[in-house]
């Protein structure tokens, strides 16, 4: 199995504590993560489920929170049938009541060579989705 990495970062005009409140309010993900709605708990071992798609076409991404360090890090282990791997949000306070938010994913590609070939298309789309989501998150604090 191959593992690939994708990440994006953005500076937000709010301290990490304020951004954290939005970031881990899973139902609010629909406000800033394109084509996604989510729900879940708070704390290590809690479950999170996110539906990504349009209408009935999409997939359910099930996760377990593997790292919970408010207001600076939340990590998840993807446990669904389609997405496996680890995801993480890191928030670092910056001067001037700002913070940097980094979204990182380590994704286990299924299907050997077929999965690696599919990543040629899926990889740029994943990067675009992460960058778009973080830009939308940052706009919530402007």
Describe this entry's structure for a reader.
The chain has 142 residues and is of the alpha+beta class. The protein has a single domain (2-139), classed as START domain (Alpha-D-Glucose-1,6-Bisphosphate, Chain A, domain 4). The chain is 27% helix and 47% strand. The chain contains three helices and seven strands. The protein has helices at residues 16-23, 29-32, 113-139; strands spanning 2-12, 36-40, 47-54, 57-69, 73-79, 84-94, 98-109. A seven-stranded antiparallel sheet has the order 1-7-6-5-4-3-2. Strand 6 and strand 7 form a beta hairpin. The model has no long low-confidence stretch (mean pLDDT 94).
Largest sheet: 7 strands, antiparallel
Gyration radius over CA:
15 Å
What's the CATH topology name?
A: Alpha-D-Glucose-1,6-Bisphosphate, Chain A, domain 4
> How much of the polypeptide forms β-strand, as a percent range?
over 45%
Q: Which range best describes the helical content: under 10%, 10-25%, 25-40%, 40-55%, 55-70% or over 70%?
A: 25-40%
Number of strands: 7
CATH superfamily: START domain
Topology record:
Layout: E1 2-12, H1 16-23, H2 29-32, E2 36-40, E3 47-54, E4 57-69, E5 73-79, E6 84-94, E7 98-109, H3 113-139
Antiparallel strand pairs: 1-7, 2-3, 3-4, 4-5, 5-6, 6-7
Keywords:
alpha+beta, Alpha-D-Glucose-1,6-Bisphosphate, Chain A, domain 4, 7-stranded antiparallel beta sheet, 3 helices
Overview in brief:
This protein has 142 residues and is an alpha+beta fold. The protein has helices spanning 16-23, 29-32, 113-139; strands at 2-12, 36-40, 47-54, 57-69, 73-79, 84-94, 98-109.
């Amino acid at each position: 199995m191959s593992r690939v990495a994708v990440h994006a970062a953005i500076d937000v005009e709010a301290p990490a504590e304020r951004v954290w409140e939005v970031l881990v309010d899973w139902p609010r993900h629909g406000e800033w993560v394109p084509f996604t709605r989510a729900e879940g708990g708070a704390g290590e071992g809690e479950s999170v489920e996110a539906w990504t798609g349009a209408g009935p076409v999409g997939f359910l991404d099930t996760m377990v929170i593997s790292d919970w360090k408010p207001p600076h890090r939340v990590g998840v282990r993807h446990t669904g049938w389609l997405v496996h791997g680890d995801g993480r949000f890191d928030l670092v306070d910056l001067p001037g009541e700002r913070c940097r938010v980094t979204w990182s994913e380590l994704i286990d590609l299924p299907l050997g060579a077929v999965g690696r070939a599919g990543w040629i298309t899926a990889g740029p789309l994943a990067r675009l989705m992460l960058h778009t989501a973080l830009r939308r998150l940052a706009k919530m604090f402007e």
